Amino acid sequence: MAESSLLMFSARDLLATPSHEGLAYFVEKLFKPHETYEYQNAQALYKFCVVNFSNCLTQMLLKVYLHSPDDLIRFRAISLLSEALTGLRNRSFELSPVALDVIKPLLVSCLTMPEAKKPDTKMLRRIVSCVARNAMKLDPHGWDELGDCMLTLVNTDPVRAFNVFLDLPQLHVGFINRFFKHLIEEIEDTFKTCHFVPEETNPCVFSPRKGSLLLSLQVSGGFLQKIYYQKKRTRSSTT
């Protein structure tokens, strides 16, 4: 009982603040050697926060990613959040509507940060998937800000848009239509520019952006199936 009360007070001190700096320092402790006192205390508090304050923890970890000057801390923050939200989703936990109103714009800001690294995108796409599933339950028509964000990414960073798209749940066709046509055009243009043939026999020269997109297409086995079903839904909605 005393330990639980102590964890409660510690969690409130950690999360009930507008600044991300305390949590950024706390994230660093979670990656100390496991035998250390710092790690063990931090891990106990973190697990308590995941179970009891997941809405607030999600918001604060996204703020760490947005505002911390340390790239490693930023990546660790979204890595922790990706793992936590995936675990909560598997236990049928849902973020609160009030928290979602704060989390969704924060997450869109994370997605549109310039020069995001590939490992960051991998973690963010899992977080987007979890949040989108929650958002769909409240509004089956989708998540307007994410649709606008995806449209922007298709034009500015199609590789990131493609990777985020891969983990999206089945959303309302109106949401998909915002960016889907542009994404397909970018992918089809990449296919036309450079076919899947051995590099030494491939005469085409393509930009780094198209090269990255091509590589993403090659390693994403389930993509064509997802494209097929999304196109089918799009066509059926117009007939």
Tell me the layout of helices and strands.
Elements: H1 2-15, H2 21-29, H3 37-52, H4 54-67, H5 71-90, H6 97-111, H7 118-138, H8 144-156, H9 158-166, H10 173-193, H11 208-219, H12 223-237
How would you explain this protein's 3D organization?
By secondary structure, this protein is mainly alpha-helical. Helices cover 75% and strands 0% of the residues. The protein is built from 12 helices and no strands. The longest helix is centred in the middle third of the chain and has 21 residues, at 118-138. It starts with a helix and ends with a helix. 31% of the residues are buried.
Brief account:
The protein is an all-alpha fold. The chain is 75% helix and 0% strand. It is globular and about 55 Å long.
**Major sheet description:** none
| Helix residue percentage | over 70%
**Percentage beta strand:** under 5%
Number of strands: 0
So how many helices?
12
Query: What's the N-to-C terminus distance?
Result: 62 Å
Mean pLDDT across all amino acids: 77
Which features does this protein show?
239 residues, mainly alpha, Serine Threonine Protein Phosphatase 5, Tetratricopeptide repeat, 2 domains, 75% helix
